[in-house]
Amino acid sequence: MNIDVYRKVQREFDLKRQRKIDEANRKKEEIYASNPQLKKIEDEMNVLALKITKNILNADEITRQVESENMSMKLKALDEKLDIELKKIGYSKDDFKPKFDCKICEDRRNCKKRRYN
Ligand SMILES: [Zn+2]
Fold it and tell me: Which residues neighbour ligand 1 (ion) by CB within 5 Å?
């Protein structure tokens, strides 16, 4: 294949992939905008995730382990809470995931297992 054609095709695929991601994000934003309780849970999860990252720098190993377990449990609880809240309004987290053609490489096209259209 001519290199320019190859690049053009590759770019088309990238755009298609990005559109799917944008679409999923837009759907999520729409649902979150009308359901602020979901946004609140996700904000809490983001704060917690940041704390987990910072905890890695904790000098004391025992504290670090205990904190890590505590925060992982909290994060799991929040994740379950989010699932429950989503179910209440008839959604699941999968609804916010981009609908990729290939689940393995998520349309990055670096897997050999699937033939692309
Ligand atoms: Zn693939």
Answer: 102, 104-105, 111, 114
CA–CA gap between residue 116 and residue 112 (Å, rounded)? 10
Residue 116 CA to ligand 1 center (angstroms) comes to: 8
* Domain extents in the chain: 1-34, 36-91
pTM of the model as a whole: 0.72
HEC string of the chain?
CCHHHHHHHHHHHHHHHHHHHHHHHHHHHHHHHHCHHHHHHHHHHHHHHHHHHHHCCCCCHHHHHHHHHHHHHHHHHHHHHHHHHHHHCCCCHHHHCCCCCCCCCCCCCCCCCCCCC
Distance CA 91, CA 95 (A): 7
Question: Could you report the per-residue pLDDT of 59-103, keeping only the tens digit for each?
Answer: 788 988 998 899 999 999 999 999 999 999 999 999 999 999 888
What backbone phi and psi angles, to 5 degrees, belong to 103? -75, -20
